[in-house]
Amino acid sequence: MKIFVPGHGLAGGREILEIYKGYLQKFYATVQDLYKLGIIDYEMKPKVIEALEEYRSWAMFVTFIGPHVSQVYLEVEKESF
């Protein structure tokens, strides 16, 4: 068995990476959908938190969600050009 030791969070097996991958995919898709609806990044935060409720217990989730929304928003915006 391979052990993964990410830069943040718990160490574990492949399931750790799968869980994080699911989080990133859901996060990105949520921001992308909200962008298509014309919602500005700073207005997205509560909606993203709601969509990612299953991850809310993660350390510093609420602290970093705003900056992460802004970053993903910029990526989504860049793709639209």
Structure description:
The chain is mainly α and 81 residues long. The protein contains three helices and no strands. The chain has a domain at 24-79. It has helices at residues 14-36, 41-51, 61-79. The protein is elongated. The mean pLDDT is 90.
Give start-end ranges of low-pLDDT stretches. Answer: none
Averaged pLDDT = 90
Shape: elongated
Count of discrete alpha- or pi-helical segments spanning 4 or more residues: 3
- Assess the beta-strand content as a share of residues: under 5%
Helix content: 55-70%
Number of strands: 0
- Class by alpha and beta content: mainly alpha
The radius of gyration is 14 Å
The largest β sheet comes out as: none
The sequence of SSEs as H and E is: HHH
Spatial separation of the terminal alpha carbons? 44 Å
Key attributes of the depicted protein:
81 residues; mainly alpha
Provide a compact summary of the structure.
The chain is mostly helical. It has three helices and no strands.
What is the secondary structure topology, with strand pairs?
Blueprint: H1 14-36, H2 41-51, H3 61-79
